[in-house]
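Key result, reporting period 2: structure in, sequence out.
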């Protein structure tokens, strides 16, 4: 029977999902490599961070997905997450969605179609070129990236054994109505996109983004919370106590959707974390708690310690 765990963390605690598998007291040495990987007939920027492998040693893999317009580094925050995972013996690959970070494409190329394709390309590259175990693969999604991960997790042939969603987006169409200044503003942008093929939208963070009609259409059609109901692996939800962008109802929707299907669902609430989760602020306690939470979750759910081939 599925076990559902709802946890609230304080800075002195670390919670793990499933059997305890502590992060090694002796962190792995790590390597970081910048890449251009093929996807959709172009090259997309990516970064691999991995433990230093001994002969014939393979590691779990986590594919990291950034937020809307944020880029694969998220001001260094996702780079720190990748380092923490690698020190715990978990390799990762993260990449830029169209129009973000070091992407050579305009923002108008961003859509769920391109995000899903680029995520698949990153996973394929990692499985082909890195010392990772294809039977120990997880995904981490932040904000809009969480919706991409949930959609993939619900696919019949999902490659993921465990997923973590932070600042989780359950209903993109409804949420973006708030994100862009209310439903009336969203509807105005959508009408502009229908007339021109795109609309220049302004985010709560002051970014001006040329968003395509395809992005609007696919955002309104996307149903990640419905998709995730087919996922049978363990799920971690991370939410900030001071979250100002993602309403708690999005978390509740994921808890309800995974109640009868996921092997386990854990909610970790991080004190003092807003939607930046320490990525865009100096909050070492938030950083530390987030890193331990993710490392413990993926260490325990992706078969614990590394194994030789």
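The corresponding designed sequence is given below.
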């Amino acid at each position: 029977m599925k076990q559902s765990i709802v946890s609230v963390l304080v800075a002195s605690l670390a919670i793990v999902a499933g059997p305890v598998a502590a992060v090694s007291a002796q962190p792995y040495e790590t390597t970081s490599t910048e890449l251009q990987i093929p996807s959709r007939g172009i090259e997309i920027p990516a970064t691999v961070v991995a433990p230093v492998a001994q002969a014939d040693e393979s590691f779990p893999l986590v594919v990291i997905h950034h937020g809307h317009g944020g880029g694969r580094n998220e001001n260094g925050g996702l780079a720190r997450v990748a380092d923490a995972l690698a020190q715990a013996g978990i390799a990762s690959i993260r990449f830029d969605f169209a129009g973000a970070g070091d992407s050579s494409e305009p923002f108008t190329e961003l859509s769920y179609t391109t995000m899903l394709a680029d995520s698949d390309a990153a996973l394929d590259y990692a499985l082909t070129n890195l010392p990772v175990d294809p039977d120990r693969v997880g995904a981490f999604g932040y904000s809009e990236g969480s919706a991409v991960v949930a959609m993939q997790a619900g696919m019949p042939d999902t490659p993921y054994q465990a997923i973590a969603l932070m600042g989780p987006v359950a209903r993109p169409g409804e949420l973006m109505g708030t994100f862009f200044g209310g439903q009336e503003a969203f509807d105005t942008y959508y009408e502009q996109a229908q007339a021109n093929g795109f609309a220049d939208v302004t985010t709560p963070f002051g970014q001006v983004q040329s968003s395509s009609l395809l992005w609007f259409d696919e955002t309104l059609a996307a149903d990640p919370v419905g998709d995730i109901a087919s996922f049978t692996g363990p799920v971690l939800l991370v939410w900030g106590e001071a979250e100002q962008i993602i309403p708690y109802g999005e978390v509740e929707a994921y808890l309800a959707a995974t109640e009868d299907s996921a092997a386990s669902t854990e909610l970790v609430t991080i004190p003092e974390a807003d939607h930046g989760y320490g990525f865009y602020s100096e909050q070492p306690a938030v950083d530390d708690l987030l890193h331990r939470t993710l490392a413990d979750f993926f260490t325990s759910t992706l078969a614990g310690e590394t194994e030789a081939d």
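The radius of gyration is 18 Å. Residues 8-24, 305-309 have pLDDT under 50 and may be disordered. This case is discussed further under Risks and Mitigation.
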